[in-house]
Structures are given as C-alpha cells and as structure tokens.
C-alpha cells in the first residue's frame, strides 16, 4: 500500500482530475497526523496512468479545499508588509497543530497572498458567512488598542471579577481590543466596561477598563505616543480644556446655591480645586485642608482620567461639570469631588450677608427691647449683640448648658420647606462660651413669638420639624427702634467681620456664624401646634407646654 503525505497549502486547479481520478481522496487534514493532508489509495486500484499522476502529485503537491475562513485580529509586520491589516477577511487553507498556525490566503485584485501565521492572530470560522458576521462586529475595534494604567492589571478568562486569572499586564503594556460588553459594571464603586483583549504574546481574555487607556491607531501612531502628546496642557484635548478652563468648587456648593442656604464657614471664594497650566501645579483648598500637586505632565491611563505625573493625584472627569480627585494621604487613598460653578462666589456671599442684615433690621425696626411677663427681657443691640435677663424660667431643658444670658444674634439656621408657611425664620443665639441655640420666630402685630427648636446636623443647619413638646414664648416690642450699624456677626474667633458693603468677589469674607452647630437631630414626629399657657409665678421652673 502506498500513501501520499503532503504538507502545505496545495490547491488542485484541475477540476477534472479531482472529479474523475481522485473523487474520494481529498480530505481535510487528519486530526491524528498534525499538519498533513493524507491521500490514501491502493496502487492496484489505479491504472498505470493513475499511478503516474499520483507520482507527479507527490512531487508537485496534493490539493485541498479551504478548511474555513478567518478575520485578522492583530496583523504582525510580515502580514502588514503583504497588505494585510486588522479586520481583513482571509481564507484558511490549512492549519498545523505542531506549529499552532494557519496557512492563510487572501485574494486581492492584483495577487493572491499566502502566509503561515500563528493561530491566535486569526479569529477562525467554518463558513464565510460566520466570518463576515464576526468581521462586522470587529471592524469598530480594528484600530483600537489599550494600554495598562497600572502594574499587574489582570486579564481574566471571562468578564467576571471572580473568573480565573490568565495574565497580568505590566504598566504601560499595550494590548489589542477585540470587543466590549454593552453594559458598564460596578466593581467596588468603580464603573466601567469589560473589554475582550489580546496581548502581544497571544493571551486572550477580559479585563476591566477602569485602569485601561483606549487608543485609536488611526489617530495616533501607537499607544506609547499618547504620553508624549499629553505633555502639560493640551488645548486640543477637550477634557483637558474642561479641566483647566472651568472653576471647580467643592460639590456641596451646589445644594447651598440651589436652596439659598449657606454655611459661610464652608462657602468661601478661596475654597476649590485650582489648575495652573503655566506653572504646572494643581491645588486643593478646603476649610481644614490645603495641598499643592506640582506635575510635569498629564498622562492618561484611561479615557477621561488623568495622572498628574510627579504626584499621586489622579483626576477623573466623570462629566463636563464634575471631577473626582484621588490621591495618597497618610498612607491611604483620599477622594474629593468638585463641580464646575459659574456663579461669582463673592457676589453670592455678599447677597447672603445683606439678606441676614435685612432680617435683623426687620426686627430692630419694631424695637430693641423684647419683653415677656414670664420669660424676662431681651435687649437687642445694633451690632448683633443681645442680653437676656429673667431667662431662668425657661429651665435647663430649653437652653444650652452654661447659658449666661449674653451672646450674639445670628441667622445661620434655616427653615425646612414644611415650616416656611408657619414661621418668619430662625434666630440663632450664639456664644463662644456656651455654643448656640436656634429659635423659630414669627412676627405678629406688636410682638414676636419665639419657640426653641432643634436643628439638623450637617454642613448647613436646618430646622426640619418642631420639637415634640414645643414651648411658645411671646415677647412684646418696646424701647426705641434701632439701625444695624455693626459689621456683622462675629466669627468663631470672636472678631468682627467686614460689612456686606465691603465684600466683593476678589476678597475672602469671613463667616457670619461664630461656631458650627452640633446639636442633635430633632424628632420627626409631628407636634401639636397649640400655644402653651405661660407658667404661673408659683412654678417658675416649669414652663408651659
């Protein structure tokens, strides 16, 4: 018995020969004989001419049909030299298990290109239709590459954080993007897509894109040129333009501006995130924190994320008006969020201080002496000071520990939306000695009603509900009217602050309130809204409820 074993992409061009002489001897390669195409026929079964032709075929090559079709995933230099590129459709003439390769054929208008290439560079399919379907999905990613933004970025067998690890990338290592999941995934608070990737050594798997930079080879020469193009401030990069050209403030500024409720100790012109492109320095300034981040260049480890080279600062542009900063602080990662603000902070502060002065002036226009037959007398001064005599009848439950009847008037606490139709506002009595106490107040005819309240904790104190057992006190106006002449309400240091008229957007105004309010949250149950009778002289320590 004689066998013909031939290797390589041999194509029989004479259809008559295949059809008449060797109708049943052209087979796809045997899985037991890697890299070869067996042709078997007993010599006795062939006439003399057949034996001669078989001998000639053994010398010139045996033919076979295509074993399938493929799409080029990552063309190497040899393939590129032959005009092949990522996404091209090719014919698979044969494959070798020993060499782990395909012999591919690409027919063009000018010539037919035949090459032996590693299997991992080709996505194979049995039919042309299946290959064309994959090609249509792959074309959008044909020129897209990735680059690892950190050391040890894992590639996994499937798009799951718990799937087996198949490879770890080096920092700045380039990879080929094959596909992407349609939906983003949240992993430990980080959101991004899973990408199917292919390494330069043929490892294929999935990696989470948070630390991956995507580079379009049709726009940049290669992934390594990305860093050189990002030196300093690149005005052609729209995200860098956003970063350097907008004014960034702490994110808590937004609800303060929206609700017109301010904590002026936290809301100041000098607080924010500042980017100086000329000096190449980023600065964070907050109430209790300040830090500079000098940088040599901006490196993009992934889309919309920038690394300030020379520091630990990373900036993620989550939206055109919101950025997230991450940096090392005392051995841990600290995160701060800033938002783009168009308002002039100095003007907003000036308007707020003028509003607080107007509220106090409204009270002084009625009189500077507040008198109650049961709760004593409150003397108001134009510089926001007060003295309260006879307050002892309120009892310890309604006043802060250490209250001595002296302090300042502030309007640093706000009404909740459910109380705006019931009260004029909130007066806060403050002192560096005993703290602060808010009172709901309502202007009525010849006097004012005061009701001790409890404010919420948070950046801005707000009275959300009345106390469960509200005490309502009525004071009549008396004495001469007054005119606000003080520069404002003292800060926590007790020093006087500039008046509203002296503040402009270029100055750094001091806050109106003296101390932050750390009073507990008020109860949320709805109280009975009826005015309590005043206590009798016989029981001065038991105020009416």
Helix-strand layout with pairing:
Blueprint (H helix, E strand, L loop, with lengths): L2 E4 L8 H7 L15 E4 L7 H13 L7 E5 L4 H5 L7 E8 L4 E7 L4 E7 L3 E4 L2 H11 L5 E5 L4 E4 L8 E5 L4 E7 L4 E3 L2 E3 L1 E5 L5 E5 L3 E5 L8 H5 L8 H8 L2 E3 L2 H7 L12 E5 L4 E6 L2 E6 L3 E5 L2 E4 L5 E6 L2 E8 L2 E9 L4 H20 L4 E4 L3 E5 L4 E5 L16 E5 L3 E2 L9 E7 L3 E10 L2 E6 L9 E2 L9 E6 L67
Parallel strand pairs: 30-34
Antiparallel strand pairs: 1-2, 3-4, 3-7, 4-5, 5-6, 8-11, 8-16, 9-10, 11-14, 12-13, 14-15, 17-25, 18-19, 19-20, 21-22, 22-23, 23-24, 24-25, 26-27, 26-35, 27-28, 28-29, 29-31, 31-32, 32-33, 33-35
Describe this structure in words.
The structure is a single chain. The protein is 14% helix and 34% strand. The protein has 545 residues and is an alpha+beta fold. The strands form 9 sheets. An 8-stranded antiparallel β-barrel has the order 26-27-28-29-31-32-33-35. The radius of gyration is 40 Å and the shape is elongated. The N terminus and C terminus are likely disordered.
- What is the number of helices? 8
Beginning-to-end CA distance, first to last residue: 116 Å
Find the count of extended strands (DSSP E, 2+ residues). 35
**Overall pLDDT confidence:** 78
Q: Compute the CA-based radius of gyration.
A: 40 Å
How much of the polypeptide forms β-strand, as a percent range? 25-35%
């Amino acid at each position: 018995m004689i066998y013909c074993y031939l290797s390589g992409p041999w194509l029989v061009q004479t259809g008559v020969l295949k059809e008449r002489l060797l109708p049943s001897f052209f087979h796809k390669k045997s899985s037991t004989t890697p890299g070869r195409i067996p042709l078997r026929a007993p010599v006795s079964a062939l006439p003399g001419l057949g034996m001669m032709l078989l001998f000639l075929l053994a010398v010139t090559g045996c033919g076979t049909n295509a074993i399938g079709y493929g799409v080029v995933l990552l063309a190497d230099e040899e393939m590129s030299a032959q005009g092949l590129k990522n996404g091209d459709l090719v014919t698979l003439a044969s494959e070798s298990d020993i060499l782990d390769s395909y012999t591919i054929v690409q027919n063009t208008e000018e010539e037919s290109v035949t090459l032996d290439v590693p299997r991992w560079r080709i996505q194979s399919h049995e039919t042309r239709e299946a290959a064309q379907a994959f090609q249509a999905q792959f074309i959008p990613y044909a020129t897209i590459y990735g680059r690892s933004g950190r050391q040890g970025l894992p590639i996994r067998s499937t798009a799951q954080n718990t799937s087996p690890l198949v490879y770890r990338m080096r920092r700045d290592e380039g990879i080929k993007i094959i596909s992407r999941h349609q939906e983003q995934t949240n992993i430990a608070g980080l959101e991004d897509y899973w990408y199917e990737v292919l390494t330069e050594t043929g490892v294929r798997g999935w990696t989470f894109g948070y630390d991956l930079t995507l580079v379009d080879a049709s726009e940049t020469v290669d992934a390594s040129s990305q860093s050189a193009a990002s030196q300093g401030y690149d005005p052609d990069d729209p995200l860098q333009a956003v970063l350097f050209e907008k004014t960034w403030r702490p994110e808590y500024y937004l609800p303060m501006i929206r609700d017109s409720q301010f904590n002026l100790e936290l809301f100041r012109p000098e607080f924010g995130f500042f980017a100086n492109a000329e000096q190449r320095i980023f600065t964070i300034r907050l109430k209790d924190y300040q830090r500079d981040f000098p940088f040599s260049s901006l490196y993009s480890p992934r889309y919309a994320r920038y690394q300030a080279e020379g520091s630990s600062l990373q900036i993620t542009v989550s939206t055109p008006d919101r950025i997230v900063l991450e940096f090392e602080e005392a051995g841990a990662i600290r995160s701060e969020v800033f938002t783009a603000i168009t308002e002039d902070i100095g003007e907003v502060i000036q308007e707020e201080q003028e509003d607080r002065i107007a509220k106090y002036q409204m009270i002084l226009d009625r009189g500077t002496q507040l008198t109650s037959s049961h709760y004593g007398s409150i003397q108001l001064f134009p510089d926001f000071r007060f003295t309260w005599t006879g307050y002892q009848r309120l009892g310890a439950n309604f006043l802060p520990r250490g209250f001595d009847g002296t302090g300042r008037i502030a309007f640093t606490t706000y009404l909740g939306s459910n109380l705006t139709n019931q009260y004029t506002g909130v007066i806060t009595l403050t002192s560096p000695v005993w703290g602060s106490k808010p009172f709901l107040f309502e202007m009525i005819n010849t006097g004012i009603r005061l009701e001790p309240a409890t404010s919420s904790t948070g950046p801005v104190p707000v009275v959300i509900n009345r106390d469960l057992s509200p005490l309502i006190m009525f004071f009549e106006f008396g004495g001469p009217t007054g005119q606000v002449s003080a520069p404002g309400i003292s800060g926590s240091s007790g020093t006087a602050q500039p008046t509203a008229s002296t503040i402009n957007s270029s100055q750094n105004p001091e806050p109106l309130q003296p101390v932050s309010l750390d009073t507990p949250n008020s109860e949320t149950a709805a109280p009975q809204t009826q005015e309590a009778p005043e206590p009798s002289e016989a029981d001065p320590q038991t105020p009416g409820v």
